[in-house]
Description:
mainly beta; Porin; 20-stranded antiparallel barrel; 44% strand; globular; disordered N terminus
Amino acid sequence: MFKNLYIIFFCFGFLFNQELDVDPVFTGAFGSATINDKIYNQFSIRPEFAFEKFAMGLDIYFYFDENGELYSKNWDFSSSKTTLQTIVDKIYYVRWGQPEDDMYFRIGALPTITLGHGSLISNYSNSTDYPRVRRTGFNFKQKFYNYTLEFVHSNLKNIFEPAVFGINSSFDFSSQLKLNVVLVADFNQQNGLVDSDNDGVPDYLEPEFANDENKWFAEQFYIEENEDCTQGFAVYNDLYGGLPEDENAGFCYCSDDNVLCLDSDSNLLNASSEQCEAVSGVWVPDTAPNGVHDYCDAHVNDAINNFFESYNLINEDDQISGISFGVSYDLANNFYIYSEFSKLYGNTLNPYSNTNDFDTKLGYGFIPIGLKGDWDKFSVSVDFRQNSDNYIFNYWDRNYDHSRIVVNPVEDNSNSLITKESQLYNYGESNGMSFNVTSNLLKFFNLSFDYQHLNSRLWNENLEDYKTDSNKSFYAKIDLDTSIINKVRIAEIFYQKINVKDIFNSKNNENSLFGYNLGLQLSEDMVFILKGRKTYIQNENGEYEPFKTTQIESQILF
């Protein structure tokens, strides 16, 4: 493995020794991380460099245990697949050009993506929970005369089932008139379930083995772990007191409340513990035809069936897609008038318990008119919008990777899966307005602000019907200019609350997001970094509880 690490560092070192337009920036960080309930010391090197239009940022990280042993799963070169994943995982970004250039692409972390006028994809980011989850996205844009093609893929590690697969086609019919068409899809929402060991089985199905790629459920290796499973009558004579006097009377195996009984014709009986005692004899093992006796066969098969009953549910493709058509006209000096129509394709749930007449097909949204001014350091937009039943604007938003599917625990210790699509029945016909402003005019901070206010028919569980009420969405991000604050290098905070009745008083849900990044300069070459994220998950009572993650590290500038 260390030979492979040497080769990688040699290649990166060769790149960094080339003549660059900008001197490379090397930062390092150290801290701690918890993996599989074990604390590791973390050390990472984060070089960045640029050459003409090309730029690259890496995140080469290592985890060491208390014995100084390297956690090798992040450095796996055992196959071509794991080798590729190991290398790609260390790329924070690779970029060519800037988004406004005729040709631009970026691989790795995608800070913010909006396609068209944002009806479907608005401010999506695949790095909201980085580095806890490392996604390698791809954004490509190419302009051909009066036609521009843009392509977005949220995670090349799941190349066939990304959260976002989008194509934006723009046509400049004149210097003022532009048309655009957006196609977007999530090919399998079930793929949004967290799978820490990348074994194809989500953590919620294997909570005890979430970091063991070779084991999924407790009884998986029952036969291998119990040699009695392949033993004959002699061993079971000792274990269970001998064979029945009359082998044709039927036999039974009892263990606590688990009862398996066969009558004299080998028919399975649904027997209670009392009935089991009335059957003459004990379990008679039969190792034919696979060399494993009947009880172990039945025990393992039951465990396998229970596991795959849940596993098969998450392997049924659950796709949602959308299309939008937009038009904009430049009135004067980068001041636009625009309009956009969008449609979602998929099915939500029927909330009614007493009728099957509810149409579960997803709906459409329409922006009949909007105004936007886009200048160097300031942009603002306002539009009027309306939508049909089973639809929300900005479906693919900043928090989509978290909200596309969530695990809802219930009281019997089982779990149900809730996709964002399945909950669209909560939103009926709506109309209202949206407002956005982005500014770095002020000397003290940069501001990004989005607000949507709709009058909607919302599903009311108590009434078991729809009720007209307000539906609000809010997103704000403030990034302070730290050059005017002594010892502060990074200071930003963001907050999102989507589709609630009241921004400040309504309860949080899976679409709520809060985060901050803070960097304090400890010395000339060292910065203390604190990152926090808070999302919300449902408990067994249906209430949303905060799920907090905090990352603490010391960053060194070489």
